[in-house]
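WP5 quarterly update. Target: Glycosyltransferase. Source organism: Sulfurimonas lithotrophica. Length: 299 aa.
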Amino acid sequence: MNTSNPLVSIIIPFYNHNDYIYKTLDSVLEDKYSNKEIVIINDGSSNPNDSNITKWIDKNSEIIKIKYIKRENKGLTKTLNELISLAKGKYILLCASDDYLINNTIKSRVDILENNPDKYLLLSDAIVIDENNNIIYESSLFDLYKGKKENYFNDDGLKTEITSNWSVAGATHLIRKELYDLVGLYDENLLVEDYDFFLRVVARDFILYYDEKVSAYRRHETNVSGDILKELKMFKEIKKVVLKNLYLFDDKYKHKLLTVVEYYEDKMKNYYLRNFIRIARKKTKRHRDKVKKIFRKKK
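C-alpha coordinates (predicted):
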Protein backbone atom coordinates (compact mmCIF):
# COMPACT_ATOMS: atom_id res chain seq x y z
CA MET A 1 0.00 0.00 0.00
CA ASN A 2 1.31 3.42 -0.99
CA THR A 3 0.76 5.53 2.17
CA SER A 4 2.62 8.63 0.97
CA ASN A 5 0.68 8.72 -2.30
CA PRO A 6 -2.70 7.04 -1.63
CA LEU A 7 -4.82 6.14 -4.63
CA VAL A 8 -7.00 8.96 -5.99
CA SER A 9 -10.05 8.01 -8.07
CA ILE A 10 -11.09 10.61 -10.62
CA ILE A 11 -14.75 9.83 -11.31
CA ILE A 12 -16.40 11.24 -14.44
CA PRO A 13 -20.12 11.07 -15.26
CA PHE A 14 -20.28 11.37 -19.06
CA TYR A 15 -23.30 12.63 -20.99
CA ASN A 16 -23.16 14.04 -24.55
CA HIS A 17 -19.75 15.68 -24.11
CA ASN A 18 -17.70 13.92 -26.76
CA ASP A 19 -16.31 17.29 -27.93
CA TYR A 20 -14.88 18.05 -24.48
CA ILE A 21 -14.01 14.72 -22.86
CA TYR A 22 -10.59 14.31 -24.51
CA LYS A 23 -9.35 17.52 -22.83
CA THR A 24 -10.88 16.38 -19.53
CA LEU A 25 -8.99 13.08 -19.68
CA ASP A 26 -5.76 14.74 -20.84
CA SER A 27 -5.91 17.07 -17.84
CA VAL A 28 -6.05 14.08 -15.46
CA LEU A 29 -3.04 12.51 -17.13
CA GLU A 30 -1.13 15.81 -17.17
CA ASP A 31 -1.43 16.21 -13.40
CA LYS A 32 1.81 14.74 -12.06
CA TYR A 33 0.30 12.84 -9.15
CA SER A 34 1.35 9.25 -9.84
CA ASN A 35 -1.16 7.04 -8.01
CA LYS A 36 -4.50 7.66 -9.67
CA GLU A 37 -7.25 5.93 -11.61
CA ILE A 38 -10.09 7.13 -13.85
CA VAL A 39 -13.62 5.75 -13.71
CA ILE A 40 -16.13 6.90 -16.36
CA ILE A 41 -19.79 6.03 -16.77
CA ASN A 42 -21.55 6.97 -19.99
CA ASP A 43 -25.04 7.62 -18.64
CA GLY A 44 -26.96 6.65 -21.78
CA SER A 45 -26.00 9.72 -23.80
CA SER A 46 -28.66 10.72 -26.33
CA ASN A 47 -25.79 11.33 -28.75
CA PRO A 48 -24.16 7.88 -29.08
CA ASN A 49 -20.79 9.29 -30.16
CA ASP A 50 -18.16 8.43 -27.55
CA SER A 51 -15.27 8.16 -30.01
CA ASN A 52 -13.01 10.48 -28.05
CA ILE A 53 -13.29 8.29 -24.95
CA THR A 54 -12.45 5.08 -26.78
CA LYS A 55 -9.67 6.80 -28.73
CA TRP A 56 -8.15 8.18 -25.52
CA ILE A 57 -8.36 4.80 -23.77
CA ASP A 58 -6.67 3.05 -26.69
CA LYS A 59 -3.83 5.55 -26.49
CA ASN A 60 -3.37 5.76 -22.70
CA SER A 61 -4.67 2.59 -21.03
CA GLU A 62 -1.13 1.35 -20.35
CA ILE A 63 -0.18 4.64 -18.69
CA ILE A 64 -3.10 5.06 -16.29
CA LYS A 65 -5.73 2.73 -14.84
CA ILE A 66 -9.08 3.47 -16.45
CA LYS A 67 -12.50 1.83 -16.26
CA TYR A 68 -15.21 2.79 -18.77
CA ILE A 69 -18.83 1.68 -18.48
CA LYS A 70 -21.47 2.44 -21.10
CA ARG A 71 -25.07 1.77 -20.06
CA GLU A 72 -28.65 3.04 -20.24
CA ASN A 73 -29.60 6.41 -18.79
CA LYS A 74 -30.24 6.44 -15.04
CA GLY A 75 -29.70 10.12 -14.27
CA LEU A 76 -26.81 12.05 -12.77
CA THR A 77 -27.29 11.20 -9.09
CA LYS A 78 -27.59 7.46 -9.60
CA THR A 79 -24.52 7.68 -11.84
CA LEU A 80 -22.52 9.53 -9.17
CA ASN A 81 -23.36 6.94 -6.53
CA GLU A 82 -22.44 4.11 -8.91
CA LEU A 83 -19.12 5.80 -9.68
CA ILE A 84 -18.36 6.10 -5.96
CA SER A 85 -19.08 2.39 -5.46
CA LEU A 86 -16.67 1.55 -8.31
CA ALA A 87 -13.88 3.86 -7.11
CA LYS A 88 -11.03 2.07 -5.33
CA GLY A 89 -9.17 5.15 -4.11
CA LYS A 90 -8.82 6.52 -0.62
CA TYR A 91 -9.73 9.87 -2.17
CA ILE A 92 -12.33 10.79 -4.78
CA LEU A 93 -12.18 13.68 -7.20
CA LEU A 94 -15.40 14.29 -9.15
CA CYS A 95 -15.00 15.96 -12.55
CA ALA A 96 -17.77 16.67 -15.05
CA SER A 97 -17.10 15.43 -18.58
CA ASP A 98 -16.84 18.97 -19.97
CA ASP A 99 -14.61 20.43 -17.23
CA TYR A 100 -10.88 19.84 -16.73
CA LEU A 101 -8.16 20.02 -14.08
CA ILE A 102 -5.50 22.74 -13.96
CA ASN A 103 -2.33 23.69 -12.05
CA ASN A 104 -1.13 20.22 -11.02
CA THR A 105 -2.75 20.32 -7.58
CA ILE A 106 -3.75 16.73 -6.71
CA LYS A 107 -0.57 16.04 -4.70
CA SER A 108 -0.92 19.25 -2.67
CA ARG A 109 -4.57 18.52 -1.96
CA VAL A 110 -3.92 14.94 -0.89
CA ASP A 111 -1.15 16.11 1.44
CA ILE A 112 -3.47 18.66 3.08
CA LEU A 113 -6.14 16.05 3.82
CA GLU A 114 -3.53 13.54 4.98
CA ASN A 115 -2.31 16.14 7.47
CA ASN A 116 -5.84 17.06 8.62
CA PRO A 117 -7.49 13.76 9.58
CA ASP A 118 -10.52 15.53 11.09
CA LYS A 119 -11.42 17.02 7.68
CA TYR A 120 -12.96 14.94 4.91
CA LEU A 121 -13.57 17.37 2.03
CA LEU A 122 -11.06 19.86 0.66
CA LEU A 123 -12.80 22.65 -1.25
CA SER A 124 -10.96 24.84 -3.76
CA ASP A 125 -11.72 27.34 -6.54
CA ALA A 126 -12.01 27.17 -10.35
CA ILE A 127 -11.69 29.45 -13.33
CA VAL A 128 -14.84 29.71 -15.45
CA ILE A 129 -14.68 29.09 -19.21
CA ASP A 130 -17.12 29.21 -22.11
CA GLU A 131 -17.79 26.61 -24.79
CA ASN A 132 -14.65 27.72 -26.67
CA ASN A 133 -12.30 27.55 -23.65
CA ASN A 134 -12.21 31.33 -23.22
CA ILE A 135 -11.92 32.46 -19.59
CA ILE A 136 -15.04 34.42 -18.63
CA TYR A 137 -14.46 34.57 -14.85
CA GLU A 138 -11.20 34.22 -12.93
CA SER A 139 -13.04 32.62 -9.99
CA SER A 140 -16.19 30.51 -9.85
CA LEU A 141 -16.54 31.03 -6.09
CA PHE A 142 -15.95 34.76 -5.86
CA ASP A 143 -16.53 36.27 -9.32
CA LEU A 144 -19.29 34.12 -10.80
CA TYR A 145 -21.25 33.32 -7.63
CA LYS A 146 -20.12 36.21 -5.41
CA GLY A 147 -19.01 34.16 -2.41
CA LYS A 148 -17.31 36.04 0.43
CA LYS A 149 -13.73 34.86 0.43
CA GLU A 150 -12.98 35.87 4.01
CA ASN A 151 -15.57 33.34 5.21
CA TYR A 152 -13.82 30.34 3.69
CA PHE A 153 -10.93 30.11 6.16
CA ASN A 154 -12.75 28.87 9.26
CA ASP A 155 -15.57 26.47 10.17
CA ASP A 156 -18.15 29.12 11.06
CA GLY A 157 -17.46 31.10 7.90
CA LEU A 158 -17.71 27.99 5.73
CA LYS A 159 -21.00 27.10 7.42
CA THR A 160 -22.31 30.60 6.68
CA GLU A 161 -21.33 30.40 3.00
CA ILE A 162 -22.62 26.87 2.38
CA THR A 163 -25.93 27.45 4.16
CA SER A 164 -26.81 30.88 2.85
CA ASN A 165 -24.55 31.78 -0.09
CA TRP A 166 -24.14 28.57 -2.13
CA SER A 167 -21.28 29.17 -4.61
CA VAL A 168 -19.65 25.78 -5.29
CA ALA A 169 -19.17 24.72 -8.93
CA GLY A 170 -16.77 22.60 -10.96
CA ALA A 171 -14.21 19.92 -10.08
CA THR A 172 -13.19 21.82 -6.97
CA HIS A 173 -13.38 19.30 -4.14
CA LEU A 174 -11.28 16.33 -3.14
CA ILE A 175 -13.15 13.92 -0.87
CA ARG A 176 -11.92 11.28 1.53
CA LYS A 177 -14.03 8.31 0.41
CA GLU A 178 -15.02 7.32 3.94
CA LEU A 179 -16.98 10.59 4.12
CA TYR A 180 -19.81 8.85 2.25
CA ASP A 181 -20.02 6.29 5.08
CA LEU A 182 -20.35 9.13 7.59
CA VAL A 183 -22.93 11.38 5.89
CA GLY A 184 -24.41 9.17 3.17
CA LEU A 185 -24.32 9.18 -0.63
CA TYR A 186 -26.04 11.67 -2.95
CA ASP A 187 -29.82 11.74 -2.56
CA GLU A 188 -31.21 10.17 -5.75
CA ASN A 189 -34.56 11.92 -5.31
CA LEU A 190 -33.13 15.43 -5.63
CA LEU A 191 -32.09 17.72 -8.48
CA VAL A 192 -29.74 19.76 -6.27
CA GLU A 193 -27.92 16.77 -4.82
CA ASP A 194 -24.66 18.72 -4.42
CA TYR A 195 -26.18 21.39 -2.15
CA ASP A 196 -27.89 18.70 -0.09
CA PHE A 197 -24.61 16.77 0.25
CA PHE A 198 -22.62 19.86 1.24
CA LEU A 199 -25.17 20.80 3.91
CA ARG A 200 -24.74 17.38 5.49
CA VAL A 201 -20.95 17.73 5.37
CA VAL A 202 -20.61 21.31 6.59
CA ALA A 203 -23.03 20.64 9.48
CA ARG A 204 -20.31 18.41 10.96
CA ASP A 205 -17.43 20.83 10.22
CA PHE A 206 -15.80 18.36 7.83
CA ILE A 207 -14.79 20.93 5.16
CA LEU A 208 -11.44 22.68 4.74
CA TYR A 209 -10.68 25.37 2.14
CA TYR A 210 -7.56 25.41 -0.08
CA ASP A 211 -7.09 28.78 -1.76
CA GLU A 212 -6.03 27.64 -5.23
CA LYS A 213 -7.63 27.33 -8.69
CA VAL A 214 -7.73 23.58 -9.33
CA SER A 215 -10.05 23.22 -12.33
CA ALA A 216 -11.80 24.91 -15.23
CA TYR A 217 -15.59 25.01 -14.88
CA ARG A 218 -17.39 25.20 -18.23
CA ARG A 219 -20.43 27.46 -18.45
CA HIS A 220 -22.64 26.71 -21.43
CA GLU A 221 -24.95 29.24 -23.06
CA THR A 222 -27.88 26.86 -22.52
CA ASN A 223 -27.10 26.77 -18.79
CA VAL A 224 -26.96 30.56 -18.62
CA SER A 225 -30.22 31.39 -20.36
CA GLY A 226 -32.28 28.70 -18.62
CA ASP A 227 -35.93 27.75 -18.85
CA ILE A 228 -38.67 29.32 -16.72
CA LEU A 229 -40.31 26.08 -15.63
CA LYS A 230 -36.93 24.49 -14.88
CA GLU A 231 -35.95 27.56 -12.84
CA LEU A 232 -39.15 27.30 -10.80
CA LYS A 233 -38.57 23.60 -10.24
CA MET A 234 -35.04 24.35 -9.07
CA PHE A 235 -36.29 26.97 -6.59
CA LYS A 236 -38.73 24.42 -5.14
CA GLU A 237 -35.94 21.84 -4.89
CA ILE A 238 -33.68 24.23 -2.96
CA LYS A 239 -36.49 24.87 -0.50
CA LYS A 240 -37.01 21.11 -0.15
CA VAL A 241 -33.28 20.55 0.51
CA VAL A 242 -33.11 23.30 3.12
CA LEU A 243 -36.12 21.97 5.05
CA LYS A 244 -34.76 18.42 4.84
CA ASN A 245 -31.46 19.40 6.49
CA LEU A 246 -32.66 22.06 8.92
CA TYR A 247 -32.44 19.73 11.94
CA LEU A 248 -28.66 19.37 11.51
CA PHE A 249 -27.96 22.98 12.47
CA ASP A 250 -28.20 25.14 15.59
CA ASP A 251 -30.53 28.15 15.79
CA LYS A 252 -28.05 30.56 14.22
CA TYR A 253 -27.76 28.55 11.01
CA LYS A 254 -31.41 27.47 11.04
CA HIS A 255 -32.23 31.17 10.78
CA LYS A 256 -29.85 31.57 7.83
CA LEU A 257 -31.39 28.55 6.07
CA LEU A 258 -34.94 29.79 6.65
CA THR A 259 -33.88 33.12 5.17
CA VAL A 260 -32.81 31.18 2.06
CA VAL A 261 -36.27 29.58 1.93
CA GLU A 262 -37.92 33.02 2.15
CA TYR A 263 -35.63 34.33 -0.60
CA TYR A 264 -36.57 31.54 -3.00
CA GLU A 265 -40.26 31.81 -2.14
CA ASP A 266 -40.11 35.49 -3.11
CA LYS A 267 -38.25 34.59 -6.30
CA MET A 268 -40.92 32.05 -7.21
CA LYS A 269 -43.69 34.59 -6.65
CA ASN A 270 -41.89 37.19 -8.77
CA TYR A 271 -41.26 34.65 -11.54
CA TYR A 272 -44.94 33.71 -11.61
CA LEU A 273 -45.99 37.36 -11.73
CA ARG A 274 -43.54 38.31 -14.48
CA ASN A 275 -43.98 35.20 -16.61
CA PHE A 276 -47.56 34.09 -15.92
CA ILE A 277 -48.66 34.14 -19.58
CA ARG A 278 -45.51 32.36 -20.85
CA ILE A 279 -45.81 29.66 -18.15
CA ALA A 280 -49.51 29.17 -18.88
CA ARG A 281 -48.81 28.79 -22.60
CA LYS A 282 -46.10 26.19 -21.96
CA LYS A 283 -48.33 24.19 -19.63
CA THR A 284 -51.24 24.39 -22.12
CA LYS A 285 -49.01 23.16 -24.95
CA ARG A 286 -47.77 20.24 -22.83
CA HIS A 287 -51.36 19.34 -21.97
CA ARG A 288 -52.35 19.43 -25.66
CA ASP A 289 -49.38 17.23 -26.55
CA LYS A 290 -50.35 14.68 -23.88
CA VAL A 291 -53.95 14.56 -25.16
CA LYS A 292 -52.72 14.04 -28.72
CA LYS A 293 -50.55 11.11 -27.59
CA ILE A 294 -53.47 9.50 -25.79
CA PHE A 295 -55.68 9.71 -28.88
CA ARG A 296 -52.90 8.32 -31.11
CA LYS A 297 -52.55 5.30 -28.80
CA LYS A 298 -56.33 4.67 -28.91
CA LYS A 299 -56.26 4.68 -32.71
